[in-house]
Amino acid sequence: MATPAPFTLCRIRQNERVYFYALFRDPESGKRTNKKSVERLRTQLGIFSEKPISRRDEAIRICQQALEAGLIFARDEKILLREYLIEFYTWDESEYIRRRNTLSPGSIGKDYAHTRRNLITNHLVEHIKPNLLLSKVTLGIVEDLQYALVEQGAIGHSTINVIMGAVVAALREAQRRGKLSSTVVLELKHLEVMHKARGILSEEETARFLQFAKEQSERRIYLACLLALVTGMRSGELRALRVDALQGDMIVVDQAYADRAGVKPPKGKITRHVPCPPWLVAALEALAEENPYEGDHRLVFWSKRGGSFVSSHYFSSRFKEELARSQVLDEQGIQERNISFHSLRHMANTLLRGSIDEHLLRLTIGHSSVRLSDLYTHLSDRGLRSVALAQERTILTLLGSSNDVREAT
Description:
It is a single chain. The chain has 18 helices and 7 strands. It is mainly alpha-helical. It folds into 3 domains: 62 residues, no CATH class; 96 residues, no CATH class; 206 residues, Intergrase catalytic core (hpI Integrase, Chain A), CATH 1.10.443. A hairpin with a 3-residue loop joins β5 and β6. α1 crosses α2 and α9 crosses α14. The longest helix has 20 residues.
């Protein structure tokens, strides 16, 4: 007796287009499934194309691949939800991350994956039943996990939103790969978040702190604070700053540094050129030359432990230490006003706003908008000089006379 064909193709014409559908026969029960779109199966296989499937042999090949991949009759795989979520965000093991970065290089970074894996491991796993299978997940279960995190009260709503966003993304991929029923609705409401405004120092407080740092602080932390205030550079960009990025009266910001991703493009993945006073550039070059260690990077802010990249918390912790030591603010005041090293970047933005064109300000400080970033290539030297002039008038006046500043650096 002949074995029944594993599937039957249907060819349907609609609006001058041909669509292929397939009815699959369950090898165990002999029952046939409802008709399935072959183009939809193609997408579930990870084959992305806007070109319609017009040939029967191509439709047959897709159906065979779908059967082999287990998309049609996926048996109840013993995949535990706990293990699935952890593996999904494990850099060296995740098939999802590998595929995403192969198709779109750099779309998921090591630090992004590591952060989500840690959040899931440290906060969520304890609330997931040890024997809960991925295939048995429902919207109610996902909502219960969210509620458990809120009820526990160990982390804020913004962090819970990050965790649950990571969970939903992983579950949607499981649906796409046929490991979780596509009938499960995964629309989870985000928790309301009351963001604490990032504090900044007043101009008088900034002037007092910089005067103290110039006279009492280690020169490298003084220069780091000064550079962040003048240019609005982020701490990751300072960690990756090389000597060859210092160009007379300009700094080329083309990379940043993160602990796991290492050297990477700056936020927004756009190189920008930021005016910087020549005397400050010279002081940064001199600091780099003091590095007694050999290395390939030639860093400006080098670590005293081997001459390589400073730690991720170096600028933040040292800035707060020096700010408290200056008595401009005490530790409680720093915490209550939410002052951090990143506040210097916001201070630069605040002081420069109104002195230069808004688009030029965003491009100088570093904006993620591609449209604004594309505009940068058409800026004239006159536009960049206007930034330097604005720095002189609004920021550098806080440092006292030019001669005192040059002598201090």
